[in-house]
Amino acid sequence: MLDASQFQSGRLTFNYEITDLRDVAREVLESCCEQLRVKSSKTTIELDQPALVLCDRFRMEQVMMNLLSNAMKYGAGREIQIRVEASGGTARLVVRDDGMGIPKEEQGRIFGRFERAVSANNISGLGLGLYIVQSIVEAHGGRIRVESLLNAGSTFTVELPLADAEVGTGNEASL
Q1: Helix or strand run (H / E) with residue 129
Q2: pLDDT tens digits for 90-110?
Q3: Rounded CA gap, 130 and 134, in Å?
Q4: What are the pLDDT digits (tens) for 27-82?
């Protein structure tokens, strides 16, 4: 809730540094091993060449953690696939689950504040996770999109600009 209100009021600060999204994916996956085991979710990770972005590492971990948590929550214990790649000046973080999917008519609103595609009676949550993810991604000059079919899973793709090798680190900015 605090992050959502800070985004809304423009008071959230970021500490930018050049970060390899592969490292973020590895660390988040490692920290979720026990949860994945309990959920019986087989998880595969594919890491392409370095995907260096200028970002707030903590916030990128938050993005990855939220997407992975959603995949566990809505993936019905089925396989989760994570991929990090870089091409054409863009780094991509892709999280796919083979779970319940999102109806086409719901996909446009799931990034809204307090919005959910599933009834709160079925799966817990406040409907803030994807709103926060989208806010973080957009604050980093990126975008997030979803592709999903009902009963066939969902794929969330985060795209961020690759870092210019000459950009310094440790820059702080506010949103």
Answers
A1: helix 129-139
A2: 999 999 999 999 988 888 888
A3: 6
A4: 999 998 888 888 777 899 999 899 999 999 999 999 999 999 999 988 888 999 99
Distance CA 136, CA 142 (A): 9
pLDDT, residue 153, reads 94
Domain ranges in the chain are 15-163
Please tell me the distance from the alpha carbon of residue 12 to that of residue 20, in angstroms, as a whole number. 23
Query: For residue 62, what are its two tokens?
Result: 């938050």
Helix (H) or strand (E) holding 27, with range, is helix 21-31
Place of tokens 């709103």: 131
Contact call for residues 161 and 141 (beta carbons, < 8 A): yes
Q: Domain 15-163 carries which CATH code? A: 3.30.565.10
Place of tokens 């210019």: 164
Neighbouring-strand partners of residue 154: 97, 148
Instruction: Give the integer Cα–Cα distance in Å for 127 and 120.
Output: 9
Q: What pLDDT is stored for residue 127 in this prediction?
A: 61
Q: Which amino acid is at 153?
A: G
Q: Determine the Cα–Cα distance for residues 23 and 36; give it in Å rounded to an integer.
A: 19
β-strand 80-87 against 143-148: which pairing, if any?
unpaired
Tokens representing residue 31 in the block:
């920290």
